[in-house]
Write a sequence for this structure.
């Protein structure tokens, strides 16, 4: 994970001090990590991200209606590309830092960043994460879903269910003027209670005007730590929950595919959220 420089909340010269400024400066003066003003999205920006989120959701709905045993992950990639482009969007993954496809497809022990392939065929009992990021009119939205192909083992089905619960529990723990660490603490507690582990090498992130922005949203940690959560911030929560160890490695051949160290299954769900005065709102239904 990249080490970030410490941020600060700065009042533009000549600007009037708002109630929001006063609240954030209170926490900053107490030594907490706070966002910059630039991380607080305007109402127009939030609406733009919301529209991108609607398209992103529609893309995943298309996958949900067509995914089946016997299809290749390249077939999934084609569904994502064709639907996104035909509706005026851009698949953000395609070409991002050299990534060759429009979506990430991660099966069983693959944690994330799996590259779609004609040779990779979905089989009965597989669990697969489909991770899609859409750009629409310059705004980014990011979400992923788990799919169970046919009938999986009870252990895999529980993993998929608990991973979704972890995302939802993490979102419920995110409150205005709480902290990013509150999210990770809630997720880790639920995962451990169910006998699973939380990947530590990857995290959620700010999103909206770029693919990846501040803050890093860790899915483990302590309450009251990490960046202050301020209304107007937009970010993902996307816990990767493993059946065995939390440790992972990156496939040396493609430089992208992240796999569990013990090669036991992993599951992940993701949504893009905006922080409001009352808590999180999902932008990628």
């Amino acid at each position: 994970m990249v080490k970030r420089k410490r941020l600060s909340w700065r009042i533009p010269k000549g600007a009037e001090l708002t109630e929001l400024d006063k609240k954030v400066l209170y926490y900053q003066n107490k030594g907490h990590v706070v966002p910059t003003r630039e991380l607080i999205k305007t109402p127009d920006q939030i609406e733009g991200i919301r529209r991108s989120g609607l398209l992103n959701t529609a893309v995943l709905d298309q996958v949900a209606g067509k995914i089946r045993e016997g299809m290749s992950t390249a077939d999934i990639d084609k569904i994502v590309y064709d639907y996104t482009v035909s509706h005026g969007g851009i698949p953000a993954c395609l070409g991002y830092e050299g990534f060759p496809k429009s979506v990430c497809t991660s099966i069983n022990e693959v944690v994330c960043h799996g590259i779609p392939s004609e040779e990779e065929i979905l089989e009965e009992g597989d669990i697969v994460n489909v991770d899609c990021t859409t750009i629409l009119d310059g705004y980014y939205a990011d979400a992923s879903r788990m799919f169970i192909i046919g009938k999986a083992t009870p252990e895999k089905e529980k993993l998929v269910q608990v991973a979704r619960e972890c995302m939802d529990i993490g979102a419920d723990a995110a409150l205005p003027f709480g902290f990013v660490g509150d999210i990770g603490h809630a997720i880790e507690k639920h995962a451990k209670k169910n006998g699973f582990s939380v990947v530590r090498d990857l995290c959620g992130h700010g999103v909206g005007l770029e693919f990846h922005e501040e803050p890093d949203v860790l899915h483990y940690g302590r309450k009251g730590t990490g960046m202050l959560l301020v209304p107007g911030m937009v970010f993902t929560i996307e816990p990767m929950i493993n059946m065995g160890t939390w440790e992972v490695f990156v496939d040396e051949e493609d430089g992208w595919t992240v796999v569990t160290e013990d090669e036991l299954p992993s599951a992940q769900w993701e949504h893009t959220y905006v922080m409001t005065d009352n808590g999180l709102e999902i932008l990628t239904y």
